[in-house]
């Protein structure tokens, strides 16, 4: 296939189970640059949560799709963004505070991660992403007219979070969507946000066709881009449903799956 663009997930894909970047992928990056094939990261992470990985891979001059595509940036330039409707956000926030006070509320706005306080959930997320949250009065922050919120992350025990998801999904929000990225992580974004939409926007940015793109991922939020790209790749550690909807299944994230499939598709003739 004539692949001209690669879009990859981060956690469980580019990173191994110890949250380290695939060393063989780092070694491949100069060869991809020689072939002028951009390698783009698409993740639920924030720009800061992706920064160290971008640097390790040496792809600072390429766009990144953050918050599952709610924000696409190239350096300091915003290429596209799809924030949460402010009125709907306030309704969700007030509902959580009132009905589920144990839930950890994490707000992502641009490069900022904003919390009311730090508990075990925030500490764990900080260890995974390498970010430090800003502790502030959340209610004051979200009520400012110029506030742009790209993602809301709700964390608690699995049983609680899945109950929250069920109730919120039944409240029929017009512009807001809810999905689990882990069994105890509920992601809240604008309804038009998905890795598929990010793929479509990046294809247009580079002036390519979908047939010229390879996408790589390991989880359900990666499925839209895996199914849409000309060549969709599932990691060996992906769930069966993700694998069954991909064109290729590569090795796991602990077995250099990303670098393996790139060598197979791009460098093996």
Automatic annotation (TrEMBL):
Tree of life domain: Bacteria
Pfam families: Hydrolase_3 (PF08282)
SUPFAM superfamilies, sorted: HAD-like (SSF56784)
Gene3D superfamilies: 3.30.1240.10, HAD superfamily/HAD-like (3.40.50.1000)
GO cellular component: cytosol
InterPro entries: Cof (IPR000150), HAD-like_sf (IPR036412), HAD-SF_hydro_IIB (IPR006379), HAD_sf (IPR023214)
PROSITE patterns assigned: COF_2 (PS01229)
Molecular-function GO terms, alphabetical: magnesium ion binding; phosphatase activity
Protein name: Cof family protein
Organism (species): Streptococcus mitis
